[in-house]
Amino acid sequence: MYDYYLGGKTNYVVDREAAQEVIRVFPAIETVAKVNRAYMHRAVRYLARQGIRQFIDVGTGIPTSPNLHDVAQEVAPDCRVVYVDNDPIVLVYADELLDGTPEGRTAYVQANATKPDEVWAAVRERNILDPELPVALSLHALMHFVTDSQEPYEIVRSLLEPLPPGSYLSLSHCTGEFDPEAWQAIIDTYAEAGTSVQVRGRTEVRRFFDGLELVDPGVVLAHQWHPQPGSGPGVLSERQVSLYAGVARKP
């Protein structure tokens, strides 16, 4: 469905039907997806410019160019990136995630984000990241698919725990604060398609960064995080964005 919102072609009839129903109740969902993608590009570029050379992208989804490694390796060709997802469809298209620079390395592993031990076991098995050097953990548009019953904050803490000081977390998360009725309809539509969704307010999203040092301007609507001309849709309302984002450093 995310691929469909972005105008991609890697989706099926069932995806398109469900996505069209979401668009019917909340036409701005396509803007939300584009804002998220633009935020990812800016955040990764920022992190690479801070000297980060290792990235783990959990919940990468269907490849959409430019991918995270394209952005990071454009800044620093020696960046290493490990993509993580548990969707077998992503595996089919994983070759597109592995076309990095000769100086860097890219890899794809299958693991479930709700099982941090499984994620780390898969990442370590590939042996392309140096455990002594900082890593940027990317959880973009992922945690709203993890409900409170699955202990989302503990999941994020467990994913961060093995990372050395100087590592970063970049996270984006949908919110229903600006149109609760529409987002409830979206949640219902996803549920009918077999996917649980739990949107959260700014305070709840801020909790994912507990114990970390937030980069200015903190947790904000995604288009407000280090905005750059031409990096996404133009003038937007809070309702159209409906996505919080932030970057924080592990002390």
From TrEMBL:
SUPFAM superfamilies: S-adenosyl-L-methionine-dependent methyltransferases (SSF53335). GO terms for biological process: methylation. The keyword DNA damage does not apply. The lineage of its organism: Bacteria, Bacillati, Actinomycetota, Actinomycetes, Kitasatosporales. This is SAM-dependent methyltransferase. Keywords: Methyltransferase, Transferase. Pfam families: Methyltransf_19 (PF04672). InterPro entries: SAM-dependent_MTases_sf, SAM_dep_MeTrfase_SAV2177_type. It comes from Streptomyces graminearus. Signal peptide: none annotated.
